[in-house]
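Forwarding the complex inputs:
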Amino acid sequence: MTGRALGPHVLDLDLAAEVDRICGWMVDTVANRLKRRGVIIAMSGGIDSSVCAALAVRAFGAGKVYGILLPERDSSHKSADRGALVGDHLGVTYETFDIAPALAAIGCYRERDEAIRRVFPAYGEGWKCKLAIAGGAQGGINFFKIVVQSPDGATEEKRLALKEYLQVVAATNYKQRIRKTVEYYHADRLNYAVIGTPNRLEYDQGFFVKNGDGSADIKPIAHLYKTQVYAMARHLGLPDEVCNAAPTTDTFSLAQGQDEFYFALPYHQMDLALWAHNHGVPVGDVAAGLGLTEDQARFIYADIDAKRRTTWYLHARPQLLEPVGEIHP
Amino acid sequence: MQDFKTPLRSFIQDNFLMGATGTTFGDADSFMARRIIDSTGFLELVMFLEETWGVTVQDDEMVPENLDSLDALQGYLARKLA
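Prediction (whole assembly, two chains):
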């Protein structure tokens, strides 16, 4: 790498210009291409949805933005509180819809817990759980461990075998898919478009549920690294509680950072590794910039490639035998 | 030495390629690089190893050097069952 070493400066952005660019694109896309009259935003209280909500208010005005808070049994009260805080701060109309009864009725919790009990037979009422990724950051093959905590606070973890892994993921994916169902109910009711809120790290690495949080009409920050999203949150004047919140999945009952669940490194390092990979930065320079060994940097590059391969399917549109030219010229 | 490659090749062809034409792979080819097996697929492969040969694949054995080609699998199983 020539010039300055790899560091956070590579993600510096003219935030005012970028806000204008995104807002102009949002209005043009929603009004002229999608022909919708406003936007729906599910506000998790996290940095990404909060920034998207703020951008939407800048673009359309608060009266054209409808917020939804979608808590369930395992999501944090802090997240819901922050979501409401953002709604109030932005002056948008929002409502809370508890999706726990729907998830219970469809079997989300039951199916998940049944799979976990095949690994930890004592798992049940009063226990907590989460998934944690392992392997890729150490040069291995990615796999997931289930971590459980008994009511007395003792934790245990085990690698999930194929059937249990797939069932836990399938069951918890109900959460994102039910949320999206509610979002599209309101989108249909109001003739609005649905905003998807992935940042570049999530979009690139496939950190979303197909037809769940991956489903949307516009994704206004999918090109921005997470570090840039945090910077934009501060630029947009979002509350400190949002700007300083650590990214979590808010999907499992045990506290869980996104890096622990899915990414090989904390987001500020993962952003730089992804940027470096995208710009052809040699492994040695990545190692120096991130304080890693060259082997670790090599493993991170390999892990980025592996996740792109594994999650290509999530991005794929329904496959057709041949193009239908009248619809997709 | 026991031949593990033949049943493994059959498993990979039946389970992952499902008779699709156009994908062939040599004994040394990386399943990941050839996009034949992804991380979920490796869990399937591990289940096949454990059910077929009664081995237990440890967490620290989930590495490409053991699992990511027919040659690697042949060596890994030979060591496990020695």
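Residues 106-166 of chain A form one domain.
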